[in-house]
Amino acid sequence: MRVLEVASEAVPFAKTGGLADVVGALPGALSRLGCDVTLVLPAYRRVFEQGLPIEPTGIEFEVPIGGRRPLARVLRCPVPGSSATALLVANDEFFDRPSLYGGANDYPDNAERFIFFSRAATELACRQSAPFDIIHCHDWQTGLVPAYQKILYRDWPAVANARTVMTIHNLAYQGLFWHWDMLLTGLDWKYFNWQQMEFHEQLNLLKTGIVFADAVSTVSPTYAREIQTPEGGCGLEGLLAARAGVLTGIVNGIDTVAWNPATDPHIPRPFTAADVEEGKYAARVALAARLGHPAPDDRPLVAFVGRLVEQKGVNLVLELLSRLAGTGRAHFMVLGTGDPAAEESLQRAAASFPGTVDVVTHFDEGLAHLVQAAADIVLVPSRFEPCGLTQLYAQRYGAVPVVRATGGLLDTVIDATPEAINDGSATGFVFGPAEAGALVQAVERALDLHANRDRWQQLVRQVMARDWSWDSSGRAYLRVFEETLARAPATIG
Ligand code: ADP
Ligand code: GLC
């Protein structure tokens, strides 16, 4: 099966969050299952800073965007750890910038940048000699691809018989733009209606993808259900419910090579379940040194790694710090970037509890690995969470996750009730309401269990035994691809 993966980020090329981890690993997983995979990404400035063997292809073409025809230059690079190839769409005006989407504010021309990318990716697919079976798109940045394949490029042999699959990694980001940006798409205004590309008078790129794709998926079964309800649907619940017949939820896998405590170059003493205590102690020593402490204290380390935005429950973390940091029961560490006000509040918390609360507000991949290795408890108190990867990395590194009962967190963590610990099924602590009191209680439950060394070690070993490799998720995607290919394409109305 020939598969084209189209996305706006992928490890190791460029990353802002879990999307990159997933899109970086999926080509390898699909290749191992016999697929011939090509990945298309924007050639951001950052892509050239990773020391990758990028080479020119000689392919270049103009992409009509409104009245302009900017040039797409195509570069090539193997996808590390797989037989897949990445094709990078370069255009310095759009992608030679310091960040992927903008800093605290989005770049004002993000509509134009990703309309350009989506059209270039579709046309690039058309220009390949062998036809594609599946075009798999991720998130709003690629939402126009299914529409382009069905409308503007339907006669090109390389994509004419392809089926498109749209994967939603986060419904909260829909790519909503001014209606006049419709002119940039090159698509007829007749598609700008409430059943297709319009959402309350704006252009909605993710909605477009959901409408025009032959199949839709999201990154956990629980989130697939949640997005069909008014609470989780971000206004698209009706559309998603209407597409329920072709909507699936597939929990993300993790890259078990990049995230392997037994071989991780970012940690001082690699470890397995057999020597997890020694490994964690060495990581604590290294982390203390990184943070400027003379030595680690002997309290359990409770950590948070993630974007500092409302979705992630950052206000619950702040409240937790104000209630627990003064008790002396644990050491806290936050690694994250995001909302400047949240960064500032966290820095204030760190200043109020020196030696107990550490806060690092930049993006540091190596430090994220070290924190997972050093932590005893990892917090994921998200308000909503399509899948979440940090709780999966935590489990692999023997850190016990404390998560809120939502989305993929619910599908990947089993609460450590006494029965669940005894029968070996427990893999973390789960709390219900999005309230600080519930989070504090769950963390206290974890700390109480931590005080019993044997019981805690039993839980840690159970947690580490969970298999989140891509094998089963890769097979689930392949099944979706096969089922989609077996169906007639969606009609465009
Ligand atoms: P999301 O994609 O919603 O941000 P996920 O849990 O799926 O959430 O993925 C988050 C990814 O981003 C993980 O790989 C996590 O380690 C990483 N990450 C988040 N913030 C940082 C940071 N400040 N430094 C390093 N890695 C980070
Ligand atoms: C999104 C979601 C996160 C998910 C990631 C990868 O960023 O917020 O829950 O794990 O995509 O699918």
Blueprint (SSEs and pairs):
Elements: E1 2-6, H1 18-32, E2 36-42, E3 55-62, E4 71-78, E5 85-90, H2 92-95, H3 110-126, E6 134-138, H4 144-150, H5 157-160, E7 163-168, E8 176-177, H6 182-185, E9 198-199, E10 202-204, H7 205-212, E11 215-218, H8 221-226, H9 237-242, E12 247-249, H10 276-290, E13 301-305, H11 314-324, E14 331-335, H12 340-352, E15 357-360, H13 365-374, E16 377-380, H14 390-396, E17 400-404, H15 407-412, H16 418-422, E18 429-431, H17 436-450, H18 453-464, H19 470-486
Parallel strand pairs: 1-2, 1-6, 2-5, 6-7, 7-11, 11-12, 13-14, 13-16, 14-15, 16-17, 17-18
Antiparallel strand pairs: 3-4, 4-5, 8-10, 9-10
Helix pairs in contact: 1-19, 3-4, 4-7, 10-13, 11-12, 11-17
The protein binds adenosine-5'-diphosphate and alpha-D-glucopyranose (GLC).
Tags for this model:
493 residues, alpha/beta, Rossmann fold, 2 domains, 9-stranded mixed beta sheet, 6-stranded parallel beta sheet, 19 helices, 18 strands, 17% strand, binds adenosine-5'-diphosphate, binds alpha-D-glucopyranose
Q: Tell me the span between the first and last alpha carbons.
A: 28 Å
Mean pLDDT: 97
Architecture of the largest domain, CATH level 2?
A: 3-Layer(aba) Sandwich
Number of helices: 19
Determine the CATH superfamily of the largest domain.
Glycogen Phosphorylase B
**Top CATH class of the largest domain:** Alpha Beta
Tell me what portion of residues adopts beta-strand conformation: 15-25%
CATH topology of the largest domain: Rossmann fold
Largest sheet: 9 strands, mixed
Write down the domain tally.
2
Helical content class: 25-40%
Q: Any idea what the shape is?
A: globular
- Largest beta sheet: strand ordering: 3-4-5-2-1-6-7-11-12
Spans of at least 5 consecutive residues whose pLDDT stays below 50 are: none
Rg for CA atoms: 23 Å
Extended strand count: 18
Which ligands occur here?
adenosine-5'-diphosphate, alpha-D-glucopyranose
Helices and strands: which structural class? alpha/beta
